[in-house]
Specification:
about 500 residues; Alkaline Phosphatase, subunit A; Arylsulfatase, C-terminal domain; 10-stranded mixed sheet; 4-stranded antiparallel sheet; 18 strands; about 15% strand; globular
Length: about 500
């Protein structure tokens, strides 16, 4: 019996490194995922921008792997964040469109996430920055314990902007509670004005220091109208200009406390989402208005994190992934000069579309990996996506991935590390906010299923695009990265095959 077990064990030892999804060597670097908000492919110097300087991110790219086909999974924030953490396309769960101020927790306790997987591998885990995945059940208890939330899905610590800053309330959530909340001044958040005298961006428009163009005209905070209504919580409210510094300060403190590692930090910046109100020291740094200034602020935040890693001797012990939650947008509800001051800057780079769109500009974004001494610097055109981080990090750390979890996440760690011959995805499904419109990339070809138009096809580039066309459009990306020439009529069989593949991915309930 003992000889039989020994032989079986030796056989498995030789077999395991060759099994799909398993790596021969387990590695446990510190991991920092830095997610920008609404940052476009063309918004960084290392991706071709000249109107704005991003030296810290450019350094990150020069020292690591810069992907030219790096994607987020959706063209708005909530679904991309859901997919990143769960490894499952957001359209598979109802209600994962942009979360409202009083939205419940979208990721339920018991769901396998990047954080739960890495905790199994012995990691300390934290999320600092924008959350926008809901809190509580069936709604947040702003004056009590805000749970379930990040701490119920694998994070040891969180310091959050609970929704997104154009939505109320403007407070920090620290672990389970609103920070600095005075019980004598309770926080109320609602969908309707608490009374007819409640100041709003409509009734008190002349008092605003940043005017609104559409929506964003309900409760006023810090001279800026928001979506939703709230009262109270005065001592807990923050100043928009201080958000970037708050994330850096809290992150550096947490990194220092966990420098013996391994640790996982999800650094979720609010830059460059509206309302764009960078700290005063960044205002006027570019010719692009507050949108450009917010890019500079985000670059500075990245630089501060890198300085901390350098100072603590952690640079060669830390895998850094930089990405964005969706493509760019100019006028997203506020008159902040983003349109008027655009000049020749191309936020989406060579692509059409942007936020809300399943065209390439909506989901193809900056994507950079750096692990000094481990990742060989270079540029890759392999297709990688934020939805794959869960399976990839599980494989890196030797953590078993349950069959019923992370249903669309693939192990792309060899490609993320730039290993010779490593391949990225052979296909990728892209969605808009609610998954009404879809895009399917297979190799060099892209199928767009466009059921609705309007805002979902918001164009933030300088090119003109004719959005007329049928339900399905076909593009050959190497020849037409801007998706200007629909080839569906010339390639009906390819269209048919890609429609079938898209339908299969949607109906199967998983693609892993």
């Amino acid at each position: 019996m003992s000889r039989t077990l020994l032989a079986l064990g030796l056989g498995l030892a030789f077999l395991l490194p060759t099994l799909p999804g398993l790596r021969a060597a387990v590695e446990k670097p510190n991991i920092i995922v830095i997610m920008a908000d609404d940052l476009g492919y063309g918004d960084l110097g290392c991706y071709g921008a000249t109107a704005v300087k991003t030296p810290n991110i450019d350094r990150l790219a020069a020292e690591g792997r810069r992907f030219t086909s790096g994607y987020c999974s959706a063209s708005t924030c909530t679904p991309t964040r859901f997919s990143l953490l769960t490894g499952t396309y957001a359209f598979r769960q109802k209600g994962t469109g942009v979360a409202p101020p009083n939205g419940p927790a979208l990721i339920k306790p018991g769901t396998e996430t990047i954080a739960t997987l890495l905790k199994k591998a012995g990691y300390a885990t934290a999320v600092i920055g924008k959350w926008h995945l809901g809190l509580g059940d069936p709604r947040p208890d702003w004056n009590g314990e805000l749970k379930p939330g990040p701490l119920e899905i694998g994070f040891d610590h969180c310091h959050l902007l609970p929704t997104t800053n154009d939505r109320v309330p403007q407070v920090y959530v620290h672990d389970h509670r609103v920070l600095n909340l005075d019980p004598k001044d309770p926080l109320w958040v609602g969908d309707k004005a608490p009374d007819e005298n409640h100041p709003t961006g409509i009734t008190h428009r002349s008092s605003l220091r940043m005017n609104w163009t559409h929506g964003h005209n309900q409760t006023i905070h810090n001279g800026i109208g928001r979506i939703g209504f709230y009262t109270g919580g005065t001592a807990a409210r923050f100043r928009d200009e201080d958000l970037g510094d708050e994330w850096v300060k809290r992150s550096n403190t947490w990194i220092e406390a966990h420098q013996d590692g391994p640790f996982f930090l999800f650094f979720a910046s609010h830059d460059i989402h509206v309302p764009r109100m960078p700290h005063e020291r960044f205002q006027g740094k570019t010719q692009l208005g507050f949108r450009g200034d917010s890019i500079v602020e985000f670059d500075s935040s990245v630089g501060e994190l890198m300085k901390t890693l350098d100072r603590l001797g952690l640079t060669e012990k830390t895998l850094v992934v930089l990405c964005s939650d969706n493509g760019p947008v100019l006028d997203d509800g506020y008159a902040d000069g983003a349109v008027e001051k655009l000049g020749d800057h191309q936020p989406a780079g060579p692509f059409s579309g942007g936020k809300y769109s399943v065209l390439e500009g909506g989901t193809r974004t900056p994507f950079i990996t750096r692990w000094a001494g481990r990742i060989k610097p270079g540029v890759s055109d392999e297709v990688v996506c934020t939805v794959d981080l869960a399976a990839s990090l599980a494989a890196l750390t030797g953590t078993a991935l349950p069959d019923n979890a992370c249903l669309d996440s693939l192990n792309l760690m060899p490609a993320l590390l730039g290993e010779p011959g490593a391949k990225g995805r052979d296909h990728l499904l892209q969605q808009d906010n609610n998954g009404t419109n879809l895009g399917l990339r297979i190799g060099d070809w892209k199928l767009v299923r466009q059921k609705t138009r309007g805002k979902s096809q918001a164009v933030v580039s300088l090119r003109k695009r004719d959005d007329a066309g049928g339900l399905h459009q076909l593009y050959h990306l190497p020849d037409d990265s801007a998706e200007l020439k629909d080839l569906s009529a010339q390639h009906p069989e390819r269209v048919k095959a890609m429609i079938a593949r898209m339908d299969e991915i949607v109906s199967a309930g998983r693609s892993r």
